[in-house]
């Protein structure tokens, strides 16, 4: 029988993984844990707790859970980690009370060196996210990529610098990172960015006739047909649109034709509404509501009549048919289903 417990072996594996893992790979592992967390058995819980013992792993998991709008999972992971620390403390105390002879300690040390090569081989063969990468080069990855979503689809993307981008439906993002800049272009739709802190290499979002520049922060950009809205949830962003303005946490701005239109204050929400599956409007122009709903409805809505009609309501983006029923029930609006679109008529 091996003198090492399952926890000891898992800790050794975690230590070996730590030396070869980039920030992006940590985020991929964090996403995998999040995806399986509801199906954990006892062995999974032990493995997850050991993985959380690494500070960088724990930070990656917290960032991923926060970006996906799941603070309750952050709390559960924190409790599991504390339980693991207490369990390890109890084991250490027990070992001190029944101290083994020096010969057994020597045998255990020899056994450790005997199993390390096999553990290393096993880790390299079974863990695709832990490929050896030189530490110095890890923060200077180049990346050219295209990310897009279909109507009704939301998608998260882990960039190689460790940043996370969450795309709303019918959205397109181009990524072009080099050694000097981390540049992306939001060509259409809406995206929430959780940017990894890297002062020597700014993160720039190009918006056609405007741009957003950050170092490390979390913000949302919503590109509509006639304007762009920016909301800052963490940190500070610099927006260049005719002139340069700094937006801090809790502030937003509206751009039109590449120029400032107005700034506004956010509510206390930790994430944009669409990230929680809802869209709430208060005296918003009908055409803006329709543009946002069309990201989630297979057949587009077309307006017949006054598209500037102010409307208010709370729409469930995960149940588009309910959103359509709510539109049809509103005063001065009538919804008619056509072969390949919905016609929304203003009856004023």
From TrEMBL:
GO terms for molecular function: sigma factor antagonist activity. InterPro entries: FecR, FecR_N, Ferrdict_sens_TM. Residues 28-65 form the FecR N-terminal domain. It comes from the Bacteria. This is Uncharacterized protein. Residues 149-237 form the FecR protein domain. It comes from Alteromonas lipolytica. Pfam families: DUF4880, FecR.
């Amino acid at each position: 029988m091996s003198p090492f417990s399952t926890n000891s072996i898992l800790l050794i594996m975690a230590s070996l993984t730590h030396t070869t893992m980039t920030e992006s790979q940590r985020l991929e592992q964090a996403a995998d844990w999040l995806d399986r967390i509801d199906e954990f058995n006892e062995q999974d819980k032990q493995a997850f707790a050991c993985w959380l013992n690494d500070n960088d792993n724990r930070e990656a998991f917290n960032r991923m859970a926060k970006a996906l709008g799941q603070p309750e999972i952050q709390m559960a992971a924190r409790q599991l980690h504390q339980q693991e620390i207490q369990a390890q403390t109890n084991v250490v105390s027990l070992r001190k009370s029944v101290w083994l002879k020096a010969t057994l300690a020597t045998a255990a040390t020899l056994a450790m060196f005997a199993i390390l090569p096999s553990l290393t081989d096993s880790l390299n063969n079974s863990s695709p996210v832990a490929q050896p990468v030189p530490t110095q080069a890890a923060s200077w990855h180049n990346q050219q990529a295209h990310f897009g979503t279909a109507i009704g689809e939301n998608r998260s993307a882990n960039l190689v610098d460790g940043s996370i981008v969450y795309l709303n439906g019918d959205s397109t993002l181009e990524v072009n990172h080099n050694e000097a800049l981390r540049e992306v272009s939001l060509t259409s739709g809406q995206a929430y960015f959780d940017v990894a802190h890297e002062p020597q290499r700014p993160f720039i979002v190009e918006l056609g006739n405007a741009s957003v520049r950050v170092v490390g922060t979390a913000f949302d950009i919503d590109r509509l047909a006639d304007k762009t809205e920016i909301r800052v949830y963490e940190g500070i962003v610099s927006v260049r649109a005719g002139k340069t303005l700094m937006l801090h946490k809790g502030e937003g701005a509206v751009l039109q034709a590449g120029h400032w239109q107005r700034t506004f204050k956010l509510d206390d929400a930790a994430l944009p509404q669409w990230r929680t599956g809802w869209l709430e409007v208060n005296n918003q122009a009908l055409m803006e509501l329709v543009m946002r709903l069309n990201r989630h409805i297979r057949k587009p809505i077309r307006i017949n009549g006054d598209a500037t009609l102010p409307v208010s309501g709370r729409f469930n983006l995960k149940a588009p048919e309910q959103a359509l029923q709510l539109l049809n029930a509103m005063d001065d609006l009538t919804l008619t289903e056509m072969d390949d679109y919905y016609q929304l008529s203003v009856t004023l």
